[in-house]
UniProtKB/TrEMBL annotation:
Example GO biological process: tetrahydrofolate biosynthetic process
Domain DHFR stretches: 26-119
Protein name: Dihydrofolate reductase
GO molecular function, one term: dihydrofolate reductase activity
Length: 169
């Protein structure tokens, strides 16, 4: 199974958080993100990311046909989508449903949970040409160590460089 983490990162390595008004989502990113989610058929996000997306019903409609799984300790986080308590429950469900690809769409705690448990095998990182004093950090577990190699790199007209990494070994 291919589990792909999709994140936007500042030049100084901060995860750009959608709920931060200073971290504007680059124009190219929502379309690319939605396209990847539709291709995967399954997407995992945290409660805050879901709440941010849910503010834009037209955007949420673009995920039609995508199974959205929300990881939250609040089982009432959504009545429209599956809410699961943690990554282990979500992974058991995903394996039961036999998905080939799953997109991890954020936020930072969801990214780090999946990285910590060595569940991610592909990362698509969008390097946005901004410096930010706030934001999350990928790989915040001191015991985490993994090696990756670049499989693709492209630059969008806005200057965002998207690099795809796959885990080695």
């Amino acid at each position: 199974m291919n589990i792909t983490l999709f994140a936007s990162i500042s030049l100084n390595g901060k995860v750009l958080l959608a709920e931060n008004p200073l971290h504007q989502v680059p124009n190219e990113m929502p379309g690319d993100f939605i396209q990847r989610a539709v291709a995967a058929g399954c997407m995992i996000i945290g409660r805050k990311t879901y709440e941010m997306i849910a503010q834009f019903p037209a955007m949420l409609e673009m995920f039609k046909g995508v199974e959205i799984i929300i990881i939250s300790s609040n089982e009432n986080a959504s009545t429209a989508y599956k809410v699961m308590a943690n990554e282990a429950v979500a992974m058991a469900y995903i394996q039961q449903q036999q998905y080939d690809t799953v997109l991890i769409g954020g936020g930072t705690s969801i990214y780090n949970t999946f990285l910590q448990h060595q569940l991610v095998n592909t990362m698509v990182l969008n390097y946005v040409p901004v410096m930010s004093g706030t934001g999350g950090q990928l790989g915040d577990d001191p015991a985490l160590f993994s090696t990756w190699r670049i499989t693709n790199q492209s630059t969008f007209p806005s200057g965002i460089t998207q690099i795809t990494f796959v885990q080695e070994g």
